[in-house]
Write a structure and sequence with these properties.
This protein is an alpha/beta fold. Helices cover about 40% and strands about 25% of the residues. The protein is built from six helices and five strands; from the N terminus they run H-H-H-E-H-E-H-H-E-E-E.
Length: about 200
């Protein structure tokens, strides 16, 4: 009797495992599924899109005149302001992560001292409050004095969306610029883009 019960339990477990492996949803890790982050799941902006656009912008910045200027100034202080979201998507957390990625790039170049706004929460909240319809050039020097930065890196993400019948194409743009705190002069700016689409065969 006991052996029958053990056999029945073993068959039940085996059946459950077999069913679990047959088409049901399962949770996976990126380390277990190579290329998990590679494929698009929608036309929404994802981590890979933002990383790709940021890297292209930062590669251009690294080879620009503003970095040569920083090298001559013996590592001036730079802060990265919030990246403005002008899309209809809720990507604020992804853009916050992008600030840290930009700071990491700047630190690794060794050309500047990076002052993190995330360590100055009240200042960050005030900048976000004033940073709605566009960057107010008259506030640059004011913010710079409070933060202790000589230069700001800032930017925005915006989009264009096209639909034709059952097909959709969304183009995303990441715009970055470097501003001189004292004068408001734009010392660098670059725009990169990526396209997502849903195509019916």
């Amino acid at each position: 009797m006991k052996s029958c019960l053990k056999l029945g339990a073993a068959l039940s477990i085996a059946g459950a495992l077999l069913l679990a492996g047959c088409g049901g949803p399962r949770a996976v890790r990126g380390s277990d599924e190579p290329g998990l982050d590679y494929h698009a799941m929608s036309t929404g902006l994802d981590k890979r899109d933002l990383q790709q656009m940021m890297k292209e912008n930062m590669d251009h910045m690294r080879n620009s005149a503003v970095v040569q200027r920083w090298m001559q100034e013996n590592r001036p202080a730079v802060s990265v302001l919030p990246i403005q979201n002008e899309t209809s998507e809720h990507i604020e957390s992804a853009l916050n992560a992008l600030i840290s990625d930009i700071e990491t790039e700047l630190i690794n170049w060794g050309a500047v001292k990076v002052i993190s706004l995330q360590n100055q929460q009240k200042m960050m909240e005030e900048i976000r409050r004033q940073y709605t319809s566009g960057f107010d050039q008259t506030q640059i020097a004011h913010w710079g004095k409070q933060i202790g930065a000589r230069y700001f890196v800032t930017g925005k993400v915006y989009t264009t969306d096209e639909r034709v019948e059952d097909q959709r194409r969304v183009q995303y743009y990441l715009f970055l610029q470097v501003l001189n705190v004292e004068t408001g002069e734009i010392l660098f700016q670059k725009k990169t883009n990526t396209t997502k689409a849903i195509i019916r065969d």
